[in-house]
Design a protein that fits this description.
The chain is of the alpha/beta class and 480 residues long. It has 18 helices and 15 strands. The strands form 3 sheets. It has an 11-stranded mixed beta sheet with strand order 3-4-5-6-8-10-11-12-13-14-15, with helices on one face. Strand 10 (323-327), helix 14 (333-341) and strand 11 form a beta-alpha-beta unit. Helix 2 (18-30) packs antiparallel against helix 3 (44-61), helix 11 (222-230) runs parallel beside helix 12 and helix 15 packs parallel to helix 16 (391-399). The protein is flat, with a radius of gyration of 28 Å. It starts with a helix and ends in a 19-residue tail after the last strand. The model has no long low-confidence stretch (mean pLDDT 91).
């Protein structure tokens, strides 16, 4: 019986298409009882031998596959972690995608008449409606639909009812105004959200995301899609960008970060990177990667929100950032040190979620003390030390720090603060005399502790306090 099964499966392996073969290799490796419609021998040695037969045949097939066939097979090999080196094939597919994208973008730029003088005037000050109006007139004279779109958007700023006309015009001229982006006008995350926000004839905000569960057949990588957006003429004045999930929630965004650094949009002022839809308890499912290449590449960036896990920051030196939020269930020690020592003199808002060691948090109260010791952040008025396992220790340290005299909004929410920490914070209120809003939501405070804080500070937000578990253990509110 075993011999019959082995012979039948060997024959099926010989007949299988490359995609079927890749799936069969995976099925054999993880112990499926039936593969390619054939029962698998129970004997472990026979199964192991058939697995190697299937892998060898797949290796032999790869060199002769077309690019289209490779595009189907290589992702399966990578996703299933089959022991086959596909580096060269991946590079070949990437080169093919790069060539196709470059051709599509070249056509998009070539189809639109250009007036560099008017464009330079506009780019010098994107707030001037007059510059858009002049460009709109010129484009209309040259027969391009962007001219009418700009004019309609300008009218809509005075009369919002005109927005319907602008949307209808955009829909009629989708090919000219979106070109290779036409198939990506909705975010690829199953939400139904529009991927692009338009103002004055151009895309000013873009959301780029790929949730594989919602769109398993999307034939473009997140990085490729991002490059397509950043290189498109309609996005030349992009102001806000959100980069969400890659193909899988656990796939790091490193490649997309490198793409953003390479094709850095000149006018970008706001960046959200990570899963912007996730509930706080799910944010760590999105693995970010190394953000260090962005500091030099985006000198005009003013607002940054990192929302995920597994990110590194390198050495932060940035003259323009005013707001920075790092939301995570577990902050690494190196990231905590990078934040504590960052050079961003215009920073006026900082929120840092530290997390719990169970979910990768490595930072300690000493890392927070290094941040609180700063005397070179003159604009900082909002400080969030959020989701910490050491909330009771923060208030006293802050009250003795150089930042005590300038902070006006203090966020200590989602943490582990008890009555002892609240009492220490209330006692230190005279040193925190400029704090007007204190947020201690989702800690472990009783009514008396909250009342003591309300006597000490003008406004206290203390919603959704939690209770100790049976073992009196305390945890930050956000874990994973």
């Amino acid at each position: 019986m075993t011999d019959d099964r082995e012979s039948a499966l060997r024959a099926a392996i010989e007949r299988a298409s490359p995609v079927e073969l890749a799936q069969a290799c995976h099925a054999l490796r993880i112990g499926f009882r039936q593969v390619l419609g054939v029962p698998v021998p129970d004997d472990a040695t026979a199964r192991a031998h058939l697995t190697e037969v299937a892998l060898d045949r797949l290796r032999a097939c790869l060199p002769g596959l077309s690019d289209d066939a490779c595009a189907q097979v290589v992702p399966i090999i990578e996703d299933r972690a089959l022991p086959i080196d596909v580096t060269d094939y991946r590079a070949r597919l990437a080169a093919r995608r790069d060539q196709a994208r470059a051709g599509a973008l070249a056509s998009a730029w070539a189809s639109e008449p250009r007036n560099e003088e008017l464009e330079d005037t506009l780019a010098a000050d994107l707030s001037r409606a007059e510059s858009y109006s002049v460009l709109a007139d010129w484009l209309q004279q040259h027969g391009h639909p962007r001219g009418e779109l700009i004019a309609l958007h300008l009218q809509a700023e005075r009369d919002p009812r005109v927005l319907d006309d602008a949307d209808a015009h955009l829909e009629r001229h989708r090919d000219a105004l979106l070109g290779p982006l036409a198939n990506h006008y909705l975010v690829h995350d199953g939400s139904g959200r529009l991927a692009f926000t338009w103002q004055r004839g151009f895309i000013t905000e873009a959301i780029v995301s790929h949730d594989d569960a919602a769109h398993p057949d999307l034939d473009v990588t997140l990085s490729d899609l991002l490059a397509l957006v950043l290189g498109h003429p309609s996005a030349r004045y992009l102001r806000k960008l959100t980069i969400g999930l890659a193909a899988y929630p656990w796939e790091p965004l490193d490649e997309s970060i490198r793409t953003l650094a390479t094709h850095a949009p000149r006018h970008l002022v706001e960046l959200v990177i990570g899963d912007d839809r996730a509930r706080p308890c799910d944010i760590s499912a999105c693995v970010i990667g190394d953000l260090a290449p962005l500091w030099a590449a985006l000198p005009g960036l003013r607002s940054l929100h990192v929302r995920g896990a597994g990110f590194e920051l390198g050495t932060i030196e940035h003259a323009a950032i005013e707001q920075a939020v790092f939301s995570t269930g577990g902050l690494s020690a190196s990231a905590a040190r990078a934040i504590a020592t960052a050079r961003w003199p215009r920073l006026d808002r900082l929120d840092v979620w530290y997390g719990h060691p169970m979910y990768g948090a490595e930072a300690s109260i000493e890392d927070v003390e290094a941040l609180l010791a700063r005397d070179d952040l003159p604009e900082l008025v909002h400080l969030g030390i959020v989701d910490t396992a050491f909330s009771d220790a923060v208030g006293d340290r802050l009250a003795r720090s150089p930042l005590a005299s300038q902070v006006r909004e203090l966020d200590l929410s989602l943490g582990t603060m008890t009555a002892a920490g609240a009492d220490a914070l209330a006692a230190a209120a005279s040193n925190l005399r400029r704090v007007r809003v204190l947020d201690v939501s989702q800690n472990y405070l009783d009514g008396a502790a909250i009342e003591a804080l309300r006597r000490a500070f003008p406004q206290v937000i203390a919603d959704d306090q939690r209770e100790l578990d049976d073992g009196n253990a305390r945890y930050p509110a956000v874990g994973e």
